[in-house]
Design goal:
The protein has four helices and no strands. The protein is an all-alpha fold and 77 residues long. Helix 1 packs antiparallel against helix 3 and helix 3 packs antiparallel against helix 4. It is elongated, with a radius of gyration of 16 Å.
Length: 77
């Protein structure tokens, strides 16, 4: 019973970590689209900077949860 409980917990962490990695990848769309929006230059710069920081934080949080081998497959840079 103890062993099964640990596997379920690991599975949840893995799923959450993969979710973080996917959100991180999708967040990289924002800096590409932001320059074409009608907002001020300062607002665009803030959104782009915030999106890049958020994407990196989500990537590394996901990498901690899924493990370095899986994260290495998704790291582009």
């Amino acid at each position: 019973m103890d062993k099964e409980g640990k596997e379920v917990k690991k599975s949840r962490f893995y799923k959450v970590g993969m979710g973080f990695l996917i959100i991180s990848l999708l967040t990289w769309i924002i800096p590409v689209v932001a320059p074409f929006t009608p907002f001020s230059t300062a607002a665009k710069a803030g959104v782009i900077t915030g999106a890049i920081v958020f994407a990196e934080v989500m990537f590394w949080a996901g990498a901690l949860l899924v493990g370095k081998e899986v994260a290495a497959k998704y790291k582009v840079i």
